[in-house]
Amino acid sequence: MLKIIGSILIIIASTFGGFMYAQCFVNRVKELNEIERCIYQLQNEIVYTHTPLPEALVNVAVKSKEPIADIFNRSSHKLKSNRYDNVYEAFKEAFRENSNLNLKEEDINLMLDLSKSLGESDITGQINIFSLTIENLKKIIAQAEITMKKNVKMYRYLGFGIGAMIVIMLI
Questions:
Q1: Which of 102, 65, 124, 93 is closest to 76 using CA atoms?
Q2: Residue pair 94/71 in contact by the 8 Å Cβ criterion
């Protein structure tokens, strides 16, 4: 009886682990889509309403979902408190402080590249920078969706398979 309960627990735990790991791929795509939406919002705030950057970041944070809202909120507070000299340093520190992101290094670098040029040029330059960032982000989202479709199913089955393999080896 104890072997059966132990075997069931092993299979459930490994299956759960597989599902949790697969969920990271799904969350990455969700976060990238949220970043894309936030960049469009930030573009509207800066280009069309001429909102100052710290206020624009707060407005974007209010309208976005966690954990992306936290990045914009932290960046805004860092800029308002004048602890950082430029937008890039504030964003970099905000990304460093937020550990519950499922983003890869290339995703974060895209946002940091955008932050390097925020407020550094005129309206036409800002529009061009936003357009380039959104174009690159769409490519990353497409790649992330392909990776998600390939890996989610595999890791879910792999979790169950490893659990079953462990149970077979123990019996």
A1: 93
A2: yes
Do residues 30 and 48 touch, judged by C-beta distance below 8 A?
Answer: no
What tens digit of pLDDT does each residue of 16-68 get? 999 999 999 999 999 999 999 999 998 988 888 888 888 888 898 888 888 88
The answer regarding whether domain 27-151 maps to CATH 1.20.81 reads yes
Evaluate whether 19 touches 149 at the Cβ level (below 8 Å): no
* 54 preceded by a cis bond (ω within 30 of 0): no
> What residue ranges do the domains of the chain occupy?
27-151
**Quick one: 102 exposed, middle or buried, by C-beta within 10 A (0-12, 13-18, 19+)?**
middle
Q: What are phi and psi of 55, to 5 degrees?
A: -70, -40
Tokens of 1: 């009886």
Q: How far lies 73's CA from each of 97, 102, 103, 115, 135, in Å?
A: 12, 18, 18, 14, 24
